[in-house]
Amino acid sequence: MREFDQRFEEYMRGHTSEASRWMHVVGMSAAAVAAVTIVRRRRPKLLWTVPAAFFTFAWSGHFIFERNLPVGFTDPGAAFSGDLKMIYMMATGRNGELKELLARLEQRDAAAEFVDTSAADFASAEAAAECPRSLDHAA
Prior knowledge:
The protein is mainly alpha-helical. Helix content is 80%, strand content 0%. The protein contains 6 helices and no strands. The chain has helices spanning 2-13, 18-41, 49-66, 76-91, 95-130, 134-138. Helix 2 (18-41) crosses helix 4 (76-91). The chain starts with a helix and ends with a helix.
């Protein structure tokens, strides 16, 4: 279960825009309507429109609001499971939980960046202390 949570956190890092998340909900709704319509009308040749309906909206959300590539380009499994969980949470009124998760991830990333920067600053200060300065030896 922990692996899924970690993959979902990575998935959510690519879905910071609420508008993009809603585009995924609209896309899934459009795909469901297309699937039901195709089945009821017995038109299996039109099944290609189901993923097309979803991806048209979801990818538009990424390109317009997120300005990033969809996770599905690099990790289709995480994208599928992440889409289902995020869309379910959005559709059941749990967008606030997603916002809290994103805030925690942002804080964690900022803290990690601070630690990395501090370590780099310390290493460069240590290297500067060990390196003789040419002006110090000129006198």
